[in-house]
Amino acid sequence: MRTGEWLAKPASRIAETFDDVDKAIAWMRSQYAPAVPHDQIPLSLRMDQAYDLLPRGVDVEWSTWLPGGRFAKVSMICCPNRHVNHPCPQSRNGQ
C-alpha cells in the first residue's frame, strides 16, 4: 500500500496535522523516541531526509523492529500528496 492511500481513510484517523515542517518533524521525533535505541538508522539521518522530502510533498515513514517481535512505525503523510490524488481528509469534512 502506498502511504498516500491513508488520505482515503476517515479524518478521525489523523493523529496530528501540521503546516510547518519543523513542527511535523518534532512530532515524529517525539512519537518515535521509544524506538530510537533499537533503530540502526541514526535519528539525525532520518530527520535530514524528512527535511528534504516533506517540503516536496513526499511522505516520510520511520520504522524499526523492537525486541519481542514488535514493530514501531511513525508516518507523516503529505496533503496534497505527490503520489496520490486523494483530497485532504480534513478538507473533505469541512474542517
From TrEMBL:
Q: Its domain of life?
A: Bacteria
Descriptive protein name: Uncharacterized protein
Q: Which organism is it from?
A: Nonomuraea endophytica
